[in-house]
């Protein structure tokens, strides 16, 4: 259907839903039916579960809630409710097969488009689900988040490569001479948002946070730097690890990032079915929070807090205002950040000078998710919307916050305020990190 004649918010929602659907089709059409049904790792659902779950959530929120329609297959809800069945158990469920799942996905979308065409998405409208097309934007983000999860399943899958994308551009000439760290001046800044139309509940409301002066790595920690930690015996020395981290390293037998293998004196890594030497100048990927935290301590530094990360990414010292992105308020373009699965890897450290923050920090958005030191907690004044199971049930010390998005994150699900979270042992996600230190002496507790 043409976007012509639709209100601006509806047209934007339509485009975001179509973009997500193209990616879903690419990721699920790339493999055989057998590979769609198979469980490639106990950590992940079969791809065919994600596919029908995308449609089931869309039926629930766009067809039934927003559209007030009876829906297509409410009988499927329990199979595709992420809270009813852990990922490891999903292959044993009576799931829709690949052909049935694809039919279901298409049938739901047909009704979604009818609902969208009729919806009053006026940003000032009275219905909070529809105002600014919020619920449609939420579902486009949901589909893209599952596409990222499916990309992680592809990364875990063994066998011949099936995904393809051009390599990111080489590092710019100044990448080798960037300062090691940048200064972020102290003082209050506005964290979170109350006016970004598709921001999710956990990003709201905006509130002032006083962040003391700190230094932040200009770029994410690279494979070369991380290999120094490995070579220095970092994985065998308890002094760098928290007690839980040290226990986990031993129980899980960690010696290097996930997907790395020893190759003589060096390392190779498996990436979407290809094996290659670990690229020295690329941000390190597939490390858990415990590894990131231990590396930082070994380097005499620490992980940034979530507030520090967001201040570095959004605060403009020239105006005192918090912006949507490090480079300003413009939506991300290919010159700003490595997003949207345009490439199947992070770009070299120091890339994307046009996406730099006022401090000079680069690649805060895109390339790799960045672990922060912070637990996933609600902001002051948080209210669950539209359902407790998106964020609220996860709040607390069990989850650590990640920021910034990776190469496989779509721009619709990535902003300076966007918050991701996961368990500190998680390694199959596209996560790296950068380190920080306080400017005031002694403040990091180890001076
Ligand atoms: C925000 C990435 C942690 O994948 O578990 C997907 C997003 N929520 N379906 C997840 C989500 C419901 C969520 N993360
Ligand atoms: Fe989901």
From TrEMBL:
The chain holds residues 81 to 527 of 528 of the full protein. It comes from the Bacteria. It comes from Actinacidiphila acididurans. This is Hercynine oxygenase. Residues 309-335 are annotated as: Disordered. Belongs to the EgtB family. It catalyses: gamma-L-glutamyl-L-cysteine + hercynine + O2 = gamma-L-glutamyl-hercynylcysteine S-oxide + H2O. Residues 178-437 form the Sulfatase-modifying factor enzyme-like domain. The lineage of its organism: Bacteria, Bacillati, Actinomycetota, Actinomycetes, Kitasatosporales. Fe cation binds at residues 53, 142, 146. Residues 16-150 form the DinB-like domain. Residues 309-318 have a biased composition (Basic and acidic residues). Gamma-L-glutamyl-L-cysteine binds at residues 87-90, 422, 426. Transmembrane segments: none annotated. Its cofactor is Fe(2+). Catalyzes the oxidative sulfurization of hercynine (N-alpha,N-alpha,N-alpha-trimethyl-L-histidine) into hercynyl-gamma-L-glutamyl-L-cysteine sulfoxide, a step in the biosynthesis pathway of ergothioneine. Pathway: Amino-acid biosynthesis; ergothioneine biosynthesis.
């Amino acid at each position: 259907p043409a976007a012509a004649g639709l209100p601006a918010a509806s047209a934007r929602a339509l485009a975001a839903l179509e973009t997500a659907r193209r990616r879903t089709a690419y990721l699920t059409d790339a493999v055989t039916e057998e590979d769609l049904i198979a469980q490639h790792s106990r950590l992940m659902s079969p791809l065919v579960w994600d596919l029908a779950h995308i449609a089931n959530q869309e039926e629930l929120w766009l067809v039934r809630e927003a559209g007030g329609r009876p829906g297509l297959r409410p009988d499927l809800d329990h199979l595709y409710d992420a809270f009813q069945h852990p990922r490891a158990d999903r292959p044993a469920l009576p799931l829709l097969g690949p052909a049935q799942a694809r039919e279901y996905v298409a049938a739901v979308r047909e009704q979604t488009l009818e609902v969208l065409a009729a919806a009053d998405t006026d940003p000032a409208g009275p219905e909070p689900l529809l105002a600014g097309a919020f619920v449609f934007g939420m579902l486009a983000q949901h589909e893209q988040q599952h596409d990222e999860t499916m990309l992680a399943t592809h990364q875990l899958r063994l066998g011949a490569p099936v995904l393809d994308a051009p390599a990111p551009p080489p590092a710019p000439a100044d990448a080798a001479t960037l300062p090691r760290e940048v200064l972020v001046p102290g003082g209050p800044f506005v964290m979170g948002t109350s006016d970004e139309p598709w921001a999710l509940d956990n990003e709201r409301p905006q509130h002032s946070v006083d962040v003391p002066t700190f230094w932040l790595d200009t770029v994410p920690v690279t494979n070369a730097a991380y290999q120094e930690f490995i070579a220095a015996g970092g994985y065998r020395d308890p002094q760098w690890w928290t007690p839980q981290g040290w226990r986990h390293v031993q129980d899980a037998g960690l010696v290097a990032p996930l997907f790395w293998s020893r190759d003589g004196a060096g390392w190779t890594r498996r990436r979407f079915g290809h094996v290659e030497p670990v690229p020295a100048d690329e941000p390190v990927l597939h490390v858990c929070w415990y590894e990131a935290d231990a590396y930082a301590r070994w380097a005499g530094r620490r992980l940034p807090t979530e507030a520090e990360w967001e201040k570095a990414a959004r605060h403009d010292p020239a105006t005192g205002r918090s912006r949507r992105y490090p480079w300003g308020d413009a939506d991300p373009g290919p010159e700003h950040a490595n997003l949207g699965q345009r490439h199947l890897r992070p770009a070299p450290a120091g890339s994307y000078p046009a996406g730099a923050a006022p401090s000079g920090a680069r690649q805060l958005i895109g390339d790799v998710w960045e672990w922060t030191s912070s637990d996933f907690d609600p902001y002051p004044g948080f209210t669950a919307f539209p359902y407790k199971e998106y964020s609220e049930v996860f709040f607390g010390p069990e989850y650590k916050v990640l920021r910034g998005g990776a190469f496989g994150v779509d721009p619709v699900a990535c902003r300076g305020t966007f918050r991701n979270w996961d368990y500190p042992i998680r390694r199959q996600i596209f996560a790296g990190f950068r380190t920080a230190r306080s400017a005031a002496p002694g403040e990091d507790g180890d001076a």
